[in-house]
Amino acid sequence: MKTSLTWLNEYLNNAINLDEQAVADLAERIERTSVEIDSSATLAGKQDGLVVAEVVQVTSHPDSDHMVIAKLNIGENDLTQVVTGAPNIEVGQLVILAKVGAHIINHESGELMVIQAANLRGETSQGMVVALQEIGFDSKIAPKAFEVGIHIFNKNDGVHPGDDALEVLGMNEPVLDTDLTPNRADMLSMAGNAYEFGAILNQSVTTPSFELVEYDTPADKQISIKIDDAKLAPKYALRVVNNVTVTDSPLWLQKHLWNAGIRPINNVVDVTNYMMLTYGQPLHAFDLDKINDSKINVRLARDGEQLTTLDKQTRDLRSGEDIVIASGDEVLMLAGVMGGQSFEIDEQTTNIAIEAAVFNPSLVRATARRHNIHSEASARFERGVNWDATFETLDHAASLIDQLTDGQIAYGQIKAADEARQDIVLSLTVIRVNEILGTSLGLQDLIAIFDRLAFNYQVADDKLIITVPARRPDITIEADLIEEVARLFGYDNLPVTLPYGPTTPGKLTVRQRQIRASRHIMETLGLNQAISYALTTPEKAQQFVENTDEKVVTLDYPMSSDRTTLRQNLLAGLLEDVVYNVNHFVHDIALYEQGRIFVANGDNELPTETEHIAGVLTGNHATSDWQEHKTARAVDFYDIKGVTESYLSQIGVENIRYVATERHDNMHPGQTADIYTGDHYLGFVGQIHPKITKPQKLAPIFAFELNLFAIMANITDHTQYSKISRFPQMSRDAALLVDETITHAEIEAVIRQSAGDKLVNITLFDVYEGNKLPEGKKSLAYTLVYQDNDETLVESAVNDDFKRVTEALVSRLNVEIR
């Protein structure tokens, strides 16, 4: 909200100091107390040397067919001559002159430039007659298009030759651009800002006053209103003004608008915008004679209806969702968002109907987003307007239009809906405030704060019974009142204390530790983490799911067409990451992602969220290296299977088995396997189908996707960590001649059963089967490693243990120690 401090001073009993340092101090104070300030500036900036000039004489340039020579009165003894190409300059006009030596903004570069005397085709020009766009006005707020020509003051604007044009145009008015939070709807109006600034500065507020003069012509004989559902518009009324003359607004009104960032249009539309800025209540004016049957209908849009809005865009309306103002089958406007082009106010308008309403904020918000129209009106209706000011704003607008258009206000306000607002009454005690804020405020301190806020209250012992004004829809509970006390008392004045009370050390849950361990394991296996959008397209959402009949979860109001649906797998996102990397010349890729997937349930039910982990490998496992005599090797199925197997083993899942499958449509039917532990399905691993990778000219991609919740439910071997011994190891080798039917597992089992607790490792380092051995025999060689965590091993202890092992092997397996 752009807030002109000059305009704001109209409502404060003691005017705000407008010098540069005072404005900077005020902005800093507001930021500490209320809302952030985006900028503090004037439209003029560093410009100077601009004056009002009266055109006394205009003659053709002797050496140009598009330039003229103008003699201007700028309040000095001599006339000033300028050469200009302005197409609309005429004798008698009051225009803006940038004198020689003036500094004005270059409308192309935005930098200041100095106006110098010039010789244009043999004629001297002592300055430059300018349009508003040439002195810093954005084309969005300038009253006329730049191509129309220079700015011309109205005779009734009260300006005179020699006046400072920057002052006359209000370009020296300091403007604070506040960055409002969604809850501070009250600060979208000058009245709301007056109460806020008044509370901060401890000043009282005088609200605008007006006189309403009605004529005998009844308004309800000229137009009627029907509201299909009270939920669409709990408050709605019209005022009719007849015999209006539509022209440009007076300068004072235009100044208020363009300093607030709104473009002046004409005296009727400008009044509606002025009232919106004053009270925060959007209004809309219809050309009454363009409404065919003189009936207004507030309803929801119907199938096939369209509306060309004021921005000249034709919009397809959504049946049953967009609130519209209609007349019969003809739509006049999108309620609370934007009017229709066919019913706008123009110079031929003579009778108008002014609308004031409170529309359903949820439907207005949805309509604004659906049609991508973020208007000043929708911004206010979405956040909430002052319920008690709706009809007062309507009357004030009718009164001002009556003055500016020489019109006649028809008798009576036509009210179609006037739902009463339920007052919010809250109690607040001194003890509660001090308990929360750590202060030592008294009852009189609280009274002083709520007097500054202009809240109505009653005092009962040490308690205030406060009635929240309708202009503050953000205050609904006791905590909101305490926040008001804190910010006006001053956050800097609150005592600084350390936290007290019992503390609980934080820790991760078992599930959180397992998820974190999953990421660590993947990274130790050489995969890099990727993070993809949870929103995707419906096709990609189901690209690697096992049941494509499941419904997808779609957003009603998506950010873009490619982010409409919640994902049901992670591989589709990883595939996009692979494509991105390959397009940027990275071909050897190892990525994993851990995150949620979403499966739809019934209507009006939240989707089921499941934690998944997925990974992809593509490119070469190792690159060529002539120094180490290595050649490049492309990754294959066994690489990705090794990753999944290592991960499951390290996370603690046992009895893993792989079952070849062809049931995954987007996976290679000959190189894909489902993964189980016992009878519990965990996920799948394999190659992504060439029908997906080849069209994108990708190398073979191998991938897996696992259900983390299923994995966590089947973890049986929780890894235990023990300290590393600082004492040396001792080893013994044993060469065994055994029957070829005896397995390594059987030998290892006997060794572990017969050895003591100092045996830490068994390694099979040689297997021999050949002609030099007896028939049916094989030779196995083992290294047994011993270590003690508490002391250095002695030779005799290791020898005794090794002897027990060899004797057990001989007696149980009939081996021969060689």
Topology:
Layout: E1 2-4, H1 5-8, H2 20-33, E2 36-41, E3 48-60, E4 68-73, E5 80-84, E6 94-105, E7 112-114, E8 118-120, E9 123-125, E10 128-129, E11 152-153, H3 165-168, E12 175-179, H4 190-201, E13 214-218, E14 224-227, E15 235-242, H5 251-259, H6 267-279, E16 283-287, E17 295-300, E18 306-308, E19 314-316, E20 323-327, E21 330-334, E22 338-339, E23 352-358, H7 361-370, H8 376-383, H9 390-405, E24 408-411, E25 414-418, E26 424-429, H10 430-437, H11 443-452, E27 456-460, E28 463-468, H12 478-489, H13 510-524, E29 528-529, E30 535-536, H14 538-541, E31 565-566, H15 571-583, E32 589-599, E33 608-618, E34 620-622, E35 633-634, H16 637-651, E36 656-660, E37 667-677, E38 680-688, H17 690-693, E39 701-707, H18 708-713, E40 730-739, H19 744-754, E41 759-768, E42 777-786, H20 795-813, E43 816-817
Parallel strand pairs: 13-24, 14-17, 29-32
Antiparallel strand pairs: 1-12, 2-12, 3-4, 3-6, 4-5, 6-7, 6-10, 6-11, 8-9, 15-23, 15-24, 15-25, 16-23, 17-20, 18-19, 20-21, 21-22, 26-28, 27-28, 30-31, 32-33, 33-39, 34-35, 36-37, 37-38, 38-39, 40-42, 40-43, 41-42
Helix pairs in contact: 5-6, 6-9, 7-8, 13-16, 19-20
Family: Belongs to the phenylalanyl-tRNA synthetase beta subunit family. Type 1 subfamily.
Domain FDX-ACB: 725-818
Domain TRNA-binding: 44-166
Key attributes of the depicted protein:
single chain; 818 residues; alpha+beta; Phenylalanyl-tRNA Synthetase, Chain B, domain 1; OB fold (Dihydrolipoamide Acetyltransferase, E2P); Phenylalanyl-tRNA Synthetase, Chain B, domain 3; 7-stranded antiparallel beta sheet; 7-stranded mixed beta sheet; elongated; cytoplasm; aa-tRNA-synth_II/BPL/LPL; phenylalanine-tRNA ligase activity; transferase activity
